[in-house]
Structures are given as structure tokens and as C-alpha cells.
Amino acid sequence: MKVRILGSGTSSGVPRIGNDWGDCDPAEPRNRRSRASILVESDTTRILVDTSPDMREQLLAANVSDVDAVIWTHDHADHTHGIDDLRQLMHARRAPVRGIAPDVTAEGLTTRFRYVFSGGGPYRATATMEPLVDGMIVGDIVIRTATQPHGGITSAGLRFEQNGKSVGYATDFNEFTSDMRQLYTGVDLWVADALRRHPHPTHPHLAQTLQWGAECGVGRMVLIHMDTSMDYMTLRAELSERVEPGFDGMEIVI
């Protein structure tokens, strides 16, 4: 499998509006972060996770015009509000994009973006919606999932398996449950939220993510959903060889 980090930033991105780079060096291009999203690919299958507000530029940079499915982890704006750009994927494939989400997320999306899933007037539906089910298969990729606490809501933790390899994707959570531990244990690659160094009420901080990854025995860890306090080169200098900060456009083959 191959994973492409489409976006590695928080809901406000890096820099924040106002050209606020915080502690991030603006001369380091890997510090420029769009909103969090990834692509997971095999030789025959491509899955998009979340539709960030930056999706158009992310897919242009990746030279991607079609996916086999999109999975939404939860319905917060920074993970969903690029949903209108699925229309171009629909045109390219001449059929609605297959959409997958946990039930509560699906309910929110199909209510807020009814026209995407039902169409309207002369416009056809852009996407379908079906429930995210543990063990479901898209193409040749098996998808396992666990519910993650995320403040007052939940998000979907994801594990992708194909040909003996595994990728875990954990964004937007603030507790680490036994189901999550089981889901991520032993993955070859764990792409995980590490918002900042000090605690946050709805996201893990760096020390938590590093500890949980070590406890799960993950093979390689890539950090995402980082804010303006997380300078790329500073992190690279202090992290171990098996852990590294992600960046927009990063590709990992396992």
C-alpha cells in the first residue's frame, strides 16, 4: 500500500490567516500545512479519507481525479467542507462517488449537504452514502474501524489491510480506548494526530501519541494534525528514527 498525506494541519492550517506561523519556520516548506486528509492506495484501489476545505488543491497536487471511495471520520468542518469538490470526481467517473461514514456522521452529512447525496433540479447526486462497517472491503483493501472519543462527539479510527500490510489512521481523538488499542496494535504504519506539546481538551498532545504508539508496537509513526507550535525541523531533531512529522505531499510505501 501507499499512503499520501494530503494535509497535515489543524482546522486553521499553518500558517493561520494573518500570516501567523507561530513557532514554525516559514522558510521550511514542510511547515505549510493544509487541513488533515489522506489517500490510501494499492495497485488497484484508491481511498480518500475526509474531504477537507483544501481538497481541490490537495488532489491537484497529487494528480488525482478519481477515487474508489471516500470515508468520513466525523463531520467537523475541517474534515468535510471540501465535499463540493467531489462533483469533479463524479464528472470524471460519470457516476456518484461511493461515500462511507459512521451512522452519526452520515446523518449529519446527509442533512447538512442533502444536495450532494440527493441532487436537486437539473443536478445529479455527487455521492452515495453507506455505513462504515468493521471488516468491510473496498477493492482489495480491508477496512477495520473503532469508535474514538473526540470531546463531545466521536470519530472513526481506521485500519487498512492489504496483502499482509497494515496502516492505521487516528485523527481527532482525546482518549485511547481498549478498542482503539486493539485496532492499532502492530500496524506497519500509524498516521496519528499530535496537535501540540501541551494538553488539549479534544486532541492528543505529542507525549500521549508517542506513548500510545509505543504501547501498540507500531512499526513506523507519522504525526499529523499539527498546529503552529510544531516546527518540522525541531521535531525531526528530537524524535526517534521510527517517528517523524508528516507534511503535505508526503508519500509512504509499505
TrEMBL record:
Pfam short name (any one): Lactamase_B_2
Entries under InterPro entries matching the protein: Metallo-B-lactamas, RibonucZ/Hydroxyglut_hydro
Ranges where the record places region Disordered: 1-32
Domain Metallo-beta-lactamase: 34-210
PANTHER family, A to Z: HYDROLASE C777.06C-RELATED, HYDROLASE C777.06C-RELATED-RELATED
Name of the protein this chain belongs to: MBL fold metallo-hydrolase
The organism of origin for this protein: Sphingomonas tagetis
